[in-house]
Specification:
The chain folds into 2 domains: about 180 residues, Quinone Oxidoreductase, Chain A, domain 1; about 130 residues, NAD(P)-binding Rossmann-like Domain (Rossmann fold, 3-Layer(aba) Sandwich). Strands 3, 4, 5, 8, 9, 16 and 17 form a 7-stranded mixed sheet that branches. The longest helix has 11 residues. Helix 4 crosses helix 5 and helix 4 crosses helix 10. It is an alpha/beta fold. The protein is built from 11 helices and 17 strands.
């Protein structure tokens, strides 16, 4: 029996546990991946704390996985041993339901989520489904590529689908794990990029990343300042505060859109007339194409800022991520 190291959650709210378990064997239409790196994302809290019905414990978290194909099942034809691959939040789909027949695989009625419905990448090996795997080009290291599989895909995808065009005003709310990537993407997409963050601490970083304007939300009305700039075509909300997001909505210009990509749990209060007046809108966004984000990142040299931890320090990496003390994404380097 060949064993591997893994980080396991045995029940909702339980501490991370370093275990040894048998290396899984791929089924007919599955792939065994030797994991090189796995990002630590806020979405992992869903698994750790049991914030989703039907999670089967014990389970291994992690959905920003980069690795090498170790072995492919007999029905897998596209992927071969030795290929560099990545697996993100979406872990597989059925190809048969109404959503899949329309090409909307993220809405699959039997959709799998990596690290939620199936063991994820906090381990030396994991099983993946071939339809959910993407190629990782040699231009990216495993550590740099891992955050692009969720944080990169989501921020880039949201900006891509925002309706903003080159020269439009794009405001990035928050300059953390999501926000620091969003700023780089917004600048490279040609938007007039504004960073909204509390205090002066991150102002220098914002300009270093290419932002054109920095607004300290602790001093004055940030929405009014956005309106003085002409109003935002898009506000990308990466900071998890419903109240802070609500306060920014008046800063949208006509046809402006606030896109929420963070798991804020507190209520938002927005007068409907505010949306009617300028045909403004609010939407959530959790998808995006991983391969598009990777290609764009390589082309424009958008690289995440990371702190690297060994697998054994997964609890520390997670704690620093959850308390916003990591600079700016935690990544487990596994092999």
């Amino acid at each position: 029996m060949q064993l591997m190291k893994a980080i396991q959650v045995s029940s909702p709210g339980a501490d991370f546990e370093l275990i040894q378990k048998e290396i899984p064997k791929p089924g007919n239409n599955e792939v065994l991946i030797k994991v090189e790196a796995c990002g630590v994302c806020h979405g992992d809290a869903i698994t750790k704390e049991g914030h989703f019905p039907g999670i089967r414990y014990p389970i291994i978290p992690g959905h920003e996985v980069v690795g090498i194909v170790d072995k492919a099942g007999p029905m897998v034809t596209h992927w071969k041993a030795g290929q560099r691959i990545g697996v993100g939040w979406h872990g597989g789909h059925c190809n048969q339901c109404n959503s899949c027949r329309k090409g909307d695989f993220g809405a699959c009625e039997k959709s799998l989520t990596t690290g939620l419905h199936m063991d994820g990448g906090y381990a030396e090996y994991m099983i993946a489904h071939p339809e959910a795997m993407v190629n990782i080009p040699d231009e990216l290291t495993a550590v740099d590529a891992a955050p692009l599989l969720c944080a990169g895909r989501t921020t880039f995808g949201a900006l891509q689908h925002s309706g903003a065009k080159g020269g439009d005003l794009a405001a990035i709310h928050g300059l953390g794990g999501l926000g620091h990537l969003a700023v780089q993407y917004a600048v490279k997409l040609g938007f007039r990029t504004v960073v909204l963050s509390r205090g002066k601490e991150k102002e220098e970083l914002a300009y270093k990343l290419g932002a054109h304007i920095y607004i300290d939300t602790d001093t004055g009305d940030a929405a009014k300042r956005l309106l003085k700039l002409g109003g935002a075509r898009v506000i990308l909300c990466t900071a998890p505060s419903g109240k802070a997001i609500s306060d920014l909505i008046p800063g949208l210009g006509r046809n402006g859109q606030a896109i929420i990509i963070t798991g804020a749990m507190d209520m938002m209060q927005i007068p409907p007339a505010l949306l009617l007046g300028g045909e403004r809108s609010i939407r959530g966004f959790v998808s995006g194409n991983i391969e598009d984000a990777i290609r764009f990142s390589i082309l424009t040299k958008v690289i995440p800022m990371v702190e690297v931890f060994p697998l054994e320090q997964a609890a520390l990496a997670y704690e620093k991520m959850m308390t916003a003390k990591v600079h700016f994404r935690s990544v487990l380097k596994i092999s």
